[in-house]
Amino acid sequence: MSTFRLEHTVPHTLARPLVIALALMLATPTFAADFTITAADGTETIPQVLNGASTGVIEAGGTLTVNAFEDAIDLSNPDNTITNNGAITAGNVGIYSAPSATNATITNIGTITSGNDGILSTGTGAIITNSGTINTGDDGIFSSGTGDIITNSGNITGADDGITSRGNNATINNTNSGTINGAYGIDSTGTGSIINNSGHITGTNHAVLGNITDGLTLNLLKGSQLMGAIDLGGAGDN
Q1: pLDDT in tens, 123-146
Q2: What is the pTM of this model?
Q3: CB 56 within 8 A of CB 106
Q4: Which of 89, 96, 97, 119 could form a disulfide with 101 if both were Cys (CB 3.0 to 4.6 A apart)?
């Protein structure tokens, strides 16, 4: 289950000044239409913020490392696209997508290491794809948007949940090469959501946890391996 997060307690735009008050020496975020971080740039230490229908890319060998209380990348507008082929290290959230950032496309092929969530997406219609490695102090991926699609063919390890899904009509795909680990492997509470699994899910509390009224569908396909309890929650679940 999800633990305390400052940015979940108050709106993210209000949480930011509180965070800055706790860490006055942090770098000022870079607001950009587009950005690219390459191996030749060395280690970038300034948080990145996308505005407009813009694109951010961290190329193979590129590194973005930010301090405690900071998100590495913030998405704030519709149709933002982020692709990480390099390495993201964040004291707070690796990639944060605001409610206003609808239809975001977030792809991790490299690594994300964070003190809080690896990817935290709150806008509707997000497409989140991981074929790399996510290792976090809270949830690997936290998604709350309606109609979000999460696909994992890599490795996700969250100290709390591997994947948390709160939005209605979400789809979570864990392919035969995908591995998800956490106290709760997948925690899904949105109405009408679907989990398709042909990979590995391990949860020390639950491999898969649903909600009593969510009508969750869990499809266990060829190759599925689940370690931990399965509790879809109640009536209407499949």
Answers
A1: 999 999 999 999 999 999 999 999
A2: 0.87
A3: no
A4: 97
